[in-house]
Amino acid sequence: MSALDSFTITYIAIPLLIFLSRVADVTIGTLRIVFISKGLKLLAPILGFFEILIWLLAMSKVFQNLDNWLYFIAYAGGFAMGNYVGLKIEERLALGYVNIRITTQKPGTELIQSLSEAGYGVTYMNAHGSKGHVNIIYCVLKRKDITEVTEIIKRFNPKAFYTIEDIRLANSGVFRTRALGQKNPFPLRKSK
Questions:
Q1: Contact 100, 163 (CB under 8 A)
Q2: What are the DUF5698 domain coordinates in residue numbering (predicted)?
Q3: pTM above the 0.90 mark?
Q4: Which of 21, 94, 175, 177 could form a disulfide with 143 if both were Cys (CB 3.0 to 4.6 A apart)?
């Protein structure tokens, strides 16, 4: 093997493989944690198996070459990038359901009607806040619908205060229906 080949393997190929391995295993680990929090019990152990298998392969190369600082940089860089990639994938998957709680000093009638007409289940009540009378509106929806609902809120009351909370479990509710023939791969689990 020539010196150029040895240099390429030691300082380019192996660090790149370590980096990519860390990106893969940390991405899988991030998704595994999300799936656990969403109650997807069958998928999480499968992902855990591949996460650790890839991690062991990356770590074995680092431990074989503890004197090469480039391997440590590749390992740490892959960890950081894996977190980023995992969160981006999770964001795009938008699994599960959320509760949006909207508090508005403006009458919420138009907002409630618009959300209902868009197919979202809405619960509302009159309340009293620190600055007087308010309407509190609750809406449970799929995470993928957050952007649409926040746009509706901003259209009817741009100064409304709202919070978004993840929901792990719900008993029943009104949810937008999917297009005819489409099955939801991650249905809302009912409490026992």
A1: yes
A2: 30-86
A3: no
A4: 94
